[in-house]
Design brief:
InterPro entries: FxsC_C, FxsC_N, TIR_dom, Toll_tir_struct_dom_sf. By secondary structure, the protein is an alpha/beta fold. The chain is about 35% helix and about 10% strand. It has helices at about 35-50, 75-85, 100-115, 120, 145, 155-165, 170-190, 200-205, 255-265, 280, 300-310, 330-340, 355-375, and strands at about 15-20, 60-65, 85-90, 130, 215-220, 270-275, 285-290, 315-320, 350. Strand 5 (about 215-220), helix 9 and strand 6 form a beta-alpha-beta unit.
């Protein structure tokens, strides 16, 4: 991939820092995936940077992804924010390096730095923080830069900045680290500014989703050419997975928002029309987005009953309606909910507006994954094609070497997938 062109975007004034973090799955019964302590830290750091800074007119202090409007194109908004930021502040945690979304933000900013010029010009523009300590057996070269922020604060390496933010007993250390980090951000942004320039989108720097993804977002909605009589065609398209239930308030189809949520939680994901997804739904966790107007067609009850029969426990349905829609869907929402209950899915959620849809999605993705881990198919273990050597066969003679295949890749340290599936 060629580096992005380092050009100033018209009208852009810049941002002091961009905060990057690994989204965590909500706890049981929780809904939003935003880590409350990340939000608290962002607010505290913003206040401290503002206290130390002398920004030019129109320059923003800080950005993190909870600032993105609900209906926006998340990836486009992130690329724009990454292109405006002077300093990239990743909160390193064990989950950060397993989240393609978080790593994509970092790689996008690194590509922008590479296009900006020499290391002297770009020094200080990437300032990592140790958010949650790593287990001793997990090493990443990037951690040294994060530890550099608090070499003289022993508790920082032991407990991480998240503990400082959470616990009143660490208040003095927390304020010291906040002041130090803010000082570095202000120094870099004001004395060595890069100015806004293009940052590559996440799809340019993250590996494409595999053909057999971890997660599926299936959509059961009418297509534009098969709408119920008198149904407003706005929001419908040639494919169900392109359905936009909230019209102009969303820039992307509803399924794409659900996919983004799964990706932020570390799962590769893709969208499918329900009619084409049956094979994948048998072996992958999924969220099923249902337009209740699907139940308004003639003979819909019988047809949907056959389609929904046999859905697995790990397919979590969401009936999606719009309170601002002039055509009331209450009757059909009740009907399709009953059909889902009859198909053996007792927990059917409903989103009546865009904020509810966005708020529910992290919990639904997490619940589908939890059900899959509990009930998913067990893949039989396949022994290696050749017998594993035994120590009983004797050790090599002194001075001899064990033959190796130089073309063989090193062992994959990733843990096996649940139920015997190896990624």
């Amino acid at each position: 991939m060629s580096p992005p062109t380092a050009r100033r975007r018209p009208g852009a004034r810049g941002t002091y820092f961009f905060l990057s973090y690994a989204h965590s799955a909500p706890p049981p019964g929780g809904r939003a995936d935003a880590d409350v302590w990340v939000g608290q830290f962002f607010a505290d750091l913003t206040d401290e940077v503002r206290r130390q800074a002398r920004p030019v007119a129109g320059m923003r202090i800080g950005f993190f992804d909870q600032h993105i409007p609900l209906g926006a194109d998340w990836k486009a908004a992130l690329a724009e924010a990454l292109g405006d930021a002077e300093v990239f502040v990743p909160l390193y945690s064990p989950g950060y390096f397993s989240r393609p979304w978080a790593l994509g933000e970092q790689e996008s900013f690194r590509a922008r730095l590479a296009a900006a010029g020499s290391a002297r010009v770009t020094a200080g523009h990437l300032t990592p923080v140790l958010w949650i300590p790593f287990p001793p057996w997990e090493a990443h070269p990037e951690l040294d830069g994060a530890l550099d922020l608090g070499r003289d604060v022993p508790e920082y390496a032991a407990d991480g900045l998240r503990a400082f933010c959470m616990l009143a007993s660490y208040r003095a250390q927390y304020e010291l680290m906040l002041s130090r980090l803010a000082s570095r951000i202000v120094h870099t942004a004001e004395r060595r500014p890069m100015g806004p320039s293009r940052a590559p989108g996440l799809d340019e720097v993250v590996r494409p989703a595999p053909t057999d993804p971890d997660f599926v977002v299936a959509v059961l909605a009418p297509t534009r050419d098969r709408l119920p009589t008198d149904r407003d065609p706005a929001g419908y398209a040639a494919s169900g997975r392109l359905w936009r239930p909230y019209g102009r308030s969303q820039q992307l189809p509803a399924a794409e928002y659900a996919v983004s949520t799964a990706e932020r939680l570390g799962l590769s994901a893709r969208t499918e029309d329900f009619a084409q997804a049956s094979a994948m739904l048998d072996r992958r966790p999924a969220v099923l987005l249902v337009d209740p107007w699907i139940a308004a067609a003639p003979d819909a009850a019988a047809v949907l009953g056959r389609m929904l029969h046999g859905l697995r426990e790990w397919v979590v349905p969401l009936v999606v309606t719009d309170d601002d829609d002039s055509q009331d869907a209450t009757r059909w929402a009740t009907a399709v909910t009953q059909l889902l209950h009859d198909a053996g899915l007792p927990q059917v959620k409903r989103a009546c507006n865009m904020p509810e849809f966005v708020d529910l999605m992290p919990a639904l993705v997490t619940e589908a994954r939890r059900q899959f881990l509990k009930y998913g198919p067990v893949v039989p273990f396949e022994p290696p094609p050749e017998p594993v050597p035994s120590l009983r066969d004797g050790l090599p003679a002194a001075g001899s070497t064990v033959p190796t295949d130089p073309a063989s890749p090193p062992d994959d340290p990733a843990p096996p997938r649940p139920h015997g599936e190896n990624r």
